[in-house]
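Technical note accompanying the year-one report. For the benefit of new consortium partners, we illustrate the data format agreed upon in the data management plan: each record pairs a sequence with a structure-token string. No post-processing was applied to the example shown here.
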Amino acid sequence: MYKKLKRISLDDFVKMFEDEKASSRKYNWIKLINSSKLVCPVSRVKVSYCSYDQKESGSLHYNFYSEDELLFTIDHIIPLSKGGTNDIENICPMLAEYNFAKVDELTDIIKNRKEYITCAAIYYPEIDLSDVRSSISYPSNIQQGIVVTGHRHSNCINTMLVLRGIRSVERSNDPNEIVTGCSIQGFMTSNNRFVNRKEAAIIALAAKQIDVLNYSKTELYSEDLY
């Protein structure tokens, strides 16, 4: 826990340390401030101010917060322990309590570009296509139901409208009414996998298809991509 001793504007923080030999942590914050790179790429929460804080142990720190008092840290996209650098391209502000993803998993995606998002998709697990399943291409991780793909999710919904004659995903007690059952909106990846919006956000950010999530703190939307 920190006790706030003095609130400092971001500009004043830069003025305090840019002309002297600052620690790498302070210098990284100066680089982020000077480049206006102040938004957490996952939550889209913005760094608002610096605070001179004191820990319970008595040690003093310069910390950074959002306007809602959320604490930030600096995140290295590729960790220093794995060959990453303090270059501006490899650092970003990250909410301290945000559990983005396992570091090893993110690093693997970034370095090897194993996966990237290819298109929008909606998974309808309750639709039975067992009679034609052998004749169609399927995502590698889907064992039942149907996945409809398209440029945007609205295209997927319209495709289902053509196939089933209805847009609704609600259940019905009327046996004569055609419905699609439950559905899960997500995306297809370059590895022929269907992933939900949250996993898609991790993949798209790590593959650098996008810089920030514009419509949700944790989920990817097709509008983020194009």
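Partners are asked to follow this layout when depositing records. The mean pLDDT is 80.
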